[in-house]
Amino acid sequence: FTKKIRDLNKGLTIYYTDSHDSFSMEYHGMGTRSWSSLLTLKAFISLLSINAQKEKSVFFPVLAIEEPEAHLHPNAQKKLFGQIDAIAGQKIISTHSPYIAATAKLDQIRNFYKDATVTCGKVETDSLTGEEIRKINRQVINTRGEIFFSKLIVFFEGETEEQALPIFAQKHFNKTPVEMGLDFVGVGGHGSYLPFLRFAEALNIPWIIFTDAENTPGKNVKGSVQQQFSNCGSPKNETDCIVFIDNGNDFEKQLISDDFGDEIKKAIASSDVYTNEKHREAKEQDRLAEIESYDDDKLYEIISSGNKTQYGPAIAEQIVKSGKDLPAKVIDLFGKISDILKIEEAEA
């Protein structure tokens, strides 16, 4: 038996066929060849297992596989994991694939996080209810598999933050969030933080919440976030990992309170669509005059409407372009990021 999996096809020819055509494995790409070698190994282990059962002998293989997803597209990676999982014995898979990680069962996953030391994390599913496990799988892993590999995660509620914060971060740190290993993750509502916090805590991934602080009849955002923080089992202090926007504000209202009205108006104007240049010439001046007349309430109504994703990046880019300091609460957030990741801030 060959010592190297990649040499399995030497001395024999393997053909892939469908109902019409046949194609030799040697002419396939690296992904298909690697996958074929692994399936050949699976068949070999299966044969050894069958023989051991016939002979009533002990057979328990331990199989270590390094990054089996290389050269495979996402659906193939998911299929591959199922085939590996079906192999007899203990399997240890190292991977950088969010698709493989998301396909595995929650209690099968271990992660390694390196800062001053290396820690190994796992989700203790025995301490969670079936519903709590389902929420982590559905709300976190199935949609945000990339955060398995984060150096730090910033959680927030809204769409504007998801569009604006990465732009602000690149301005502030003079690096892209990707370069820093920083992920900005919208949780989909102020009541949905807990599954994300449990996930990050279990895997020892540092996190910060950047959140609204609305407290109106029927909507106590601050109290809800504090309760979820209390329930996630974190040993951290609230002040170290939660940045609350000024009381009563959401992110859009905070930008207006921080005197970025002019930048918001420019963002609204830049988002207008004209069918052609003549249309622009006919409408643009009147439109600019109209936008200039908007008060704070009207600005808030527009940027907090269903077009949040449209205005978020435009507002952030206008603020960056203006040369003003970034919003104070955003600066507070970035200070905490700097402390955790031990990186220098490009701005004072």
List keywords for this structure.
348 residues; alpha/beta; 4-stranded parallel beta sheet; two-stranded antiparallel ribbon; 15 helices; 49% helix; elongated
Please characterize this protein's 3D structure:
This protein is α/β, with parallel strands linked by helices and 348 residues long. It is 49% helix and 13% strand. It has 15 helices and 12 strands. The strands form 5 sheets. It has a 4-stranded parallel beta sheet with strand order 8-7-9-12, with helices on both faces. A two-stranded antiparallel sheet has the order 1-2. A hairpin with a 4-residue loop joins strand 1 (15-17) and strand 2 (22-24). Helix 4 packs across helix 7 and helix 5 (159-173) packs parallel to helix 14 (308-322).
How many DSSP-defined strands?
Answer: 12
Low-confidence stretches: none
Give a quick account of the main beta sheet: strands, pairing sense, barrel closure. Answer: 4 strands, parallel
Provide the helix percentage. 40-55%
Shape: elongated
Mean pLDDT: 87
Helix and strand succession? Answer: EEHEHEHEEHEHHEHEEEHHEHHHHHH
Rounded to an integer in angstroms, the radius of gyration calculated over CA atoms is 26 Å
Strand content: 5-15%
- End-to-end CA span: 63 Å
Q: Main sheet: which strands, in order across?
A: 8-7-9-12
- Tally of alpha and pi helices: 15
Structural class: alpha/beta
